[in-house]
Design brief:
Elements: E1 4-9, H1 16-25, E2 31-37, H2 48-62, H3 65-68, E3 71-76, H4 80-86, E4 91-96, H5 99-115, E5 120-125, H6 135-143, H7 154-168
Parallel strand pairs: 1-2, 1-4, 2-3, 4-5
This protein binds coenzyme A.
Residues 8-11, 15, 17-18, 20-21, 37, 39-42, 79-80, 95, 97, 108, 111-112, 126, 130, 133-136 line the site of coenzyme A.
Amino acid sequence: MTKIGLYPGTFDPITVGHMDIIKRALSIVDKLVVAVALDTNKKPLFGIEERAALIKADIKAALPPSDLARVEVKTFSGLLMKFAESEKAAVIIRGLRAISDFEYEVQMACLNLKLNSEIQTIFLPASENTQFISSRFIKEISRLGGDISCFVSKNTEKELTKLFAKEAI
Ligand code: COA
C-alpha cells in the first residue's frame, strides 16, 4: 500500500529548512503532500496561492524527476486532520528546530492525535545548518535589505525583494 505523508505548514515563504525536511521525508513515505494552510495563527505576507507557487517552483528546481513525481503541493482550509483524512495520509511530518519548537509541536501533535488516533505525527530534526532558520526572520532581513541568499532559493529571494520594493513605494 502506498504510504502517504502530509507535510503541513504556513510556508511564508518556503526556506531551505523546509526543503531539507521535504527531501528527507521522501525517504520515509512513498508520496508526500506538502499542505499549505490557509488557517494558521500567523498573518502571512504571501497569499496562499503565492506560497504554494513558490513551493512548486522550488521543488521543481531541487528534486530529481523520480522524487518530484512523488510530491504534490496542495492548499487547504479548516482542520489539518480533516484534510489529512481526505488525502488518506498515514503520517503528518513536522520539522523540529531548537528546543523552543518542542512544546508547541508536541501540543499540536497530541491534539491532532486526539482528533484521529490513526494518523501519527513524525518529527524530523532540522539539519544542523538549518536549525536557526525562521521564515519570520528571513522576511525581516529581506525587508531591511539584508542578504537572504543562503536561506531561500533564488526565486523566493526575487519574489521577496519584489514585494518589499513595492511596499517601499
Ligand atoms: N528548518 C528551518 N526552519 C523551519 C523548519 C526547518 N526544518 N521547519 C519549520 N521552520 C520554521 C519556519 O520557517 C517557520 O518560521 P516562522 O515561525 O518564523 O514563520 C516555523 O518554523 C514554522 O512554520 P511552518 O513550518 O510554516 O509551520 P507552522 O507552524 O506555521 O504551521 C500549521 C502550522 C499550519 C501546521 C497549523 O497552524 C495547522 O495545522 N493549521 C490548520 C488548522 C488546524 O488544524 N489547527 C489545529 C492544530 S492542533
